[in-house]
Design brief:
Elements (H helix, E strand, L loop, with lengths): L6 E5 L6 H12 L2 E4 H9 L3 H8 L1 H13 L6 E4 L8 H10 E7 L2 H7 L16 H15 L2 E4 L5 H13 L14
Helix pairs in contact: 1-8, 2-4, 3-4, 4-5
Length: about 180
Amino acid sequence: MSKTKSNIVLIGMPGSGKSTVGIILAKMTAKNFVDTDVLIQLAENRTLQEIVNAEGHMVLRSVEEKVLLGVNCRDHVIATGGSAAYSAAAMRHLKEEGVCVFLHADLPALKKRIRNYETRGLAKRPDQSFQDLFDERLGLYTTYADITIASSHMSQEEVCAEIVDHLASRPPYRLETSPEAG
């Protein structure tokens, strides 16, 4: 008997729409919403870019892993940071209670959406291009994805509708909350 998963975990590149889609999806599915980048900033009392500037991208990844491992909730839409997939332990933890949805925007779409690549607070090597980061992360996202949404040419509402359609036909996921859910 499979355990019912009640969270929707959004993964993907910066600019793929995880935070915005997450908010809309939470409203559509009557779930709570959490953005793990915000949790990191609250835990550290500084922005992601300040962490990268002061201590480097590997410290940001370490802090992110710790925060992700501390996420314990049900009936939530969880928007993760783009680098969440670097932590196998964190991804396993999130997938225990959630279905992992990869918002797969292609490189041209991401480049149109991302205007602040150098100052966005990304967990990347200082010399790493956006193309290199995309290539490096793509395999990680596909490894952890239960569902992949090709979102490059879709509106945020269309992405949400497609996610809901996929989940409705995918046991042991459930969209509606039950009285015993906490």
